[in-house]
Amino acid sequence: MSDTQFRHGKKRFYDNSKFPRGFAKSGDFTLAEEEILIQYGDTMLGLEMGDLTPENAEEKHFVKVIENPGKAKTKLERIWLKYIQLARGRKRFHTLNGRNKPDASDDFSEDSVLVEED
Prior knowledge:
single chain; Macrodomain Ori protein
C-alpha cells in the first residue's frame, strides 16, 4: 500500500481481546487485510478516537467515513469498517436447529404410535 498517504502506526496493531490468534487466523480477514490492519490500525484507531488529528486529505476523508460508513472508498476504510463490525458488533451464532419449535401434533410419544401385533 505504498500508493497511500495514510500514516503507518507508531506500533503494530493487534486486538488480543477479540482476535487472540490474529486477524487472519480468525477466518474473517485475508492475509492482505491482516497486514493492512497491523500496519495502519494504530493510526486508524487514533483518528477514530480523536487522539490523532488528520494530517492529509486521505486521513480527513477517513474521519468522515467513520461518521458516515456509506462514503467508504479506499481499501483501508473498508477494512477498518469491517474490523469495527466484527470486533464491536454482535457475534452471529449459527445453530443446527431452526427457530421454530415443533408443533404439539408432531410429538411422537408412545401413546400416539400405532403398533401392529401378529
